[in-house]
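thread: overnight batch results

M.L. [08:02]
morning all. the overnight job finished for the chain we discussed friday. pasting input first so we're all looking at the same thing
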Amino acid sequence: MKNTILHKANERGHADHGWLNAYHSFSFANWYNPDKVQFGVLRVLNDDTVAAGMGFGMHPHDNMEIITIPLEGDLAHKDSMGNAETIKFGDVQVMSAGTGIRHSEFNPNADKRTKLLQIWLFPNKRNVEPRYQQITLDVNDRHNKLQQILSPNPDDEGVWIHQDAWFHLGKFEKGLTENYTIKREGNGVYAFVISGSVTINGQALDTRDALGIWDTEKLEIAATSDAEVLLMDIPME
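M.L. [08:03]
and the structure it wrote out:
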């Protein structure tokens, strides 16, 4: 298909540090692929597993919108703004790093791993005042439909960020078909399959595969098995 890019799960960057097993959809840390630097304003999509009791010490960020979606287990967060929170499966957390922030992230459990997606988007405003937001979603609201988890509007469902982006999560039973309309002209969608198998606009995708698609108005998502999908509707410039 034209105006699409297919990223297979086994083509991602991989780093196993023992305490951290990380897969990178885009160039990150010591893994660099000139064909996978970003997709539109999407700069990082890391698929991380953090061992029990381990984590990331205090480290800085600036001028980036950072979204964390736990898939399994818990993640304890502390930052230089004074926030100390634990995010769990069903939660979504966002940090607008803006003029600069430091934070740490640890698996607080001694007996189980934590799995999460961490996503970085370039903001549409630089040097904003740093901010933190965390919400708990009803995961039943994504059963056989798309649940909005992020938008540019503080009054909409989900968290909000400094970017014309909309994220949706859907958990579909085999055989279900769902349609999605792009929210903003000039946006594309990066679809990431968390589990199972789907077909998006005719392209077959399996667990942890991703499809970037642009210059289109709609997506048709057909679940070829029970499946969970994250759609990231984002500016291409």
